[in-house]
Amino acid sequence: QVQLQESGPGLVKPSQTLSLTCTVSGDSISSGGYYWNWIRQHPGKALECIGYIYYSGSTYYNPSLKSRVTISVDTSKNQFSLKLSSVTAADTAVYYCARQEAAAGSPFDYWGQGTLVTVSS
Amino acid sequence: DIQMTQSPSSLSASVGDRVTITCRASQFMSTYLNWYQHKPGKAPKLLIYAASTLQSGVPSRFSGSGSGSEFTLIISSLQPEDFASYYCQQSYSTPYTFGQGTKLEIK
User: Which of B39, B96, B97 to mutate to test the interface with A (most CBs of A within 10 A)?
Assistant: First the structure.
């Protein structure tokens, strides 16, 4: 059974960088065939795709966040990470990681439980 | 970006009821439409992909239909464990986008 688990600080100060890690079990990122995604949900709002990474390191970022986002992968630890710079209160959200088959039109088939990140001084 | 409009935003129903949730896209997107169930504090769960294909392990009381820009999720006979939030999501073009969600509550 594939499982994903987000981890990282729950509180980040404005203008700092939000850093989260997703640890994958039950699947190997280095096996390929899947995109590894970050998705967030602001309180009371729709889910928003942040971007994804392939095991090779190739990435896609949502244009609305592209200037502030970096997604990286550590295949030795079977983890991938999110960094979001220059955060503001508008970045307060529940952050999820999710797996997606690397094929056109594929859904997100496994998700983490999510982690709440609050941006506040 | 493709805008996804989901309705209703909330719904009260009883065990055994038939429930219909609708998702409309701002443009044509073939059948690249997925449905998720989400319970508080849990990982979202994929129910249906490609508009009408049931994910493995999902009960057959869930069904999906539609193509183009209008899609429907039907729960044929509500069970206690079905009270949750439901989201549609388009995987036709990036950035992939979601509906605002439908919160299904017990009447």
Answer: B96
